[in-house]
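During the reporting period the student researcher (J.K.) took over the structure-prediction task from the postdoctoral fellow and processed the backlog of single-chain submissions. One of the processed entries is reproduced below for the supervisory committee.
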Amino acid sequence: LAAQLRHHRVTSLWLTAALFEQMALHQGEALAGVRQVLAGGDVLPAARVREHLARLPEGTTFLNGYGPTENTTFSATFAMQHGTRVEGAIPIGRPLSNSTVYVLDAHLHPVPVGVAGEVYVGGQGLAWGYLNRPELTAERFVPHPFASTPGERLYRTGDKARWKADGTLDFLG
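J.K. obtained the following structure tokens:
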């Protein structure tokens, strides 16, 4: 893969978290030559991210993408560059344009900054539901409790997160 990245002068790359980890371990210099890398689909290994950020030249960006397939794959991203300090787990960032992310309690009320809750996502990319699975659709695609338009829904991800004071999300599992 490293040879193909160089040969074709790839400037943007989208990887699963597992493939990013393997490339960062074994083909890190080739990966650092890509101007924009987006990785997601699972928790990114913080050690590999720190190593990768140290290799990045100025003007390149590495993004951690978070979101379920039910909301067009990504709902939030966290952008990093050379010099970005990463302590502990990699944040999942802020909602993308035309997406919403809420951290709610069991009663669908927003939790305060720093308090863990369940992640709900919505926006223009939200699926209508599951084909031929009305019970699962009703369980996971819930009425949007803060919607200004009737019929809007949110997807209940089952993931836990908390908002940070800087407006980014920490993924908790």
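The committee noted the following: DSSP finds five helices and ten strands in the chain.
J.K. will present the remaining backlog at the next meeting.
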